[in-house]
Design brief:
Distance between the termini: 45 Å
Number of helices: 12
Largest sheet: none
Radius of gyration: 33 Å
Shape: flat
Oligomer: single chain
Number of strands: 0
Helix content: over 70%
Length: 323
Amino acid sequence: MIADLLPLYIDDVCSPSTRQAVEEHLNECPPCRRLCDEMKQQDPMIDTNIAQERDNVIKNQAKFFKRRSAVAGCIIGAVFALPILICLIVNLATGAGLTWFFIVLAAMFIPTSLIVVPLMASEDQFLWTILSFTASILVLLGVCCIYSGGSWFFVAASSVLFGLAVPFMPFVVKAKPVAKRIGNNKGLLLVSTYSLTYILMMLCIGLKSGSEHFFTVAALYSLSPFIFMWGLFALIRLPKWSGLLKAASCILFSAILFFFSDTLILFLYNHKIYIPSPAFSYETPEQANGTLCWTVLIAGFILSAIFAAAGFVYSKNKKEMSK
């Protein structure tokens, strides 16, 4: 048993009681003492060589799997090329030119981005998959718009960019190449991307619709979501509070903004002062809206008070423990 414990004893990774037992035994057992001396005199490069050999095995296995992934990606890419080739032959044989050929070609970029790109990329597969998938959709929309003779590309493309940014942008900002460049500004980049893609979408829709009142109405109804998004970002990022106090402030801010959102819109649109009715009735749409607003406001005050109380208790206990 002592012989089995000697490597731990020599590397000084055993418990104090184990160390004491080994030392007591070594004082009484010359064979174990000689074995301990021999183990201490071993070449220290052995462990280094073992670690290097382990790293080489891992690297070789990684290269092997990367090669297999690349081969699989090439095979799948060749399979995707078959319908493109068939469409090309049919278009030329029927005298239709290359109309549908380019649409099919652009459409095949989408499965390629979702299947081939992750297999071919050596690292950051999710980032490159999202970028290639977005680019493939934009290319397909552009080709379809050109061959259909439409003028809807910018509306569709801006909507796609905003729609994909909402679920996937949090993963993009956490990817190594992006996170390395932006540092601690992930939240700022995320909120800015949401804002810019939304503004771009509404701008394209407004220009396409040609309505005189579109931008006014769109700006009014977009104001509350923008205040909500940037307000939460500021409450989470700027104050040096605990997580519970930040949660309390975010809940209270959200409830108050929800309650006064219609008030803000109506005041900016026609300078009318509107306060939701506390009737707590659902007989008319206005009463139902007032009931919902007051319910959210009261629930928000209660939840924020609970989180704030828990935050003050936590901060107090933390200060006492630090003392």
